Amino acid sequence: MPTNKRNINLYDTLQTWCREWQPDCSFDGGTVEDFRRWQAAFRRHYRRCLGAFPQKVPLNPVVVETVDKGDYVREKVLFDSAWGVTVPAYILTPKGITPGEKRPGILAAHGHGNGKDDICGVTREKGDENAIRTVEALNYEYAVEAVQRGYIVIAPDWCPFGERRPPAWWCRAGRDPCNITDLAFQYFGRPLLTQSIWDGMRAVDVLCERPNVDKRRLGVIGLSQGGTMATHLLINDPRLKVGVVSGYLSTVRGDALNARGKGNTCGAQHVPGLLLHGDIPDMLGLACPKPVLFEIGKQETCFHYPDMMRAYRHLRRIYKAAGALDRIAADVHPHDHRWSGRKAWKWLEKWL
Fold this sequence. Notes:
Blueprint lengths: L9 H11 L11 H19 L11 E7 L3 E11 L2 E10 L8 E7 L6 H4 L2 H5 L2 H9 L4 H7 L3 E5 L11 H4 L5 H10 L5 H17 L4 E11 L1 H12 L3 E7 L5 H5 L17 H4 L2 H5 L7 E6 L7 H17 L6 E6 L10 H8 L1
Parallel strand pairs: 4-5, 4-6, 6-7, 7-8, 8-9
Antiparallel strand pairs: 1-2, 2-3, 3-5
């Protein structure tokens, strides 16, 4: 490494690494051939970082609750994604579907908070005023808006949120369940994110089993960690044709680990070894040429607007080299960390 500085404090070590330890596979090309060679190489690195996905087991889906919401029906379903792993999810189905009609499907990915309840209107039904204020501040009920726009929606709980959150006593006071659960899963050789990606792909399996879902017209949307999950599902599931990634496009190297980001990392979103090879915008380049809209808030406090725009410009270079510049777009909105929706629904209509 080029530096001769002696770092005793580990924060200083990380800052030195972020500045001077260059990734070996970040995109730096301009032609279609450059793009193809890079994407194949980076995909290999990415898959090694995540490790092996679990083996498939029968889904065994069971509907355990059905609620009539007037213009749509909300079902709670349990399905098995892997050995020893059961996932709870809501399926929202609009009324008025005619016999034989098929509707496009959406996987709605929640972020931090109360899991699927927040985006499916259940948090509002429970009546906690503080939780409702948070939902409203984040403009968070996009699963409800999707079904009201005619999509059939599935919204699973990710690890470790909603009904899948481990007991508070197990995590000990003041410790982050995302980090603790990720460390525990890695004792079994599986990053927590890898489990969530697999759960998401199995949720798509459940959605595709619905007779009124058009399996050729599937998309994914999500804010914050929901944007993380939308990213990884677009990369890994070829059935998902289009995505809206809100409040996630950024960099780990340029913001999350520095003085502004203050260690803005999370065990539920951790890709072990990513910075050896590239960063978040490179990772998103694995979804290219799928159409993806990015929501970026000018007043972001979770991330940093200048860093988000640098990441977006890097990703545009990837899409340009691939000849797919018409398939990437941004909604740069004037708010903090939240779902915008100003361009999202037209984007989904265009590509689905």
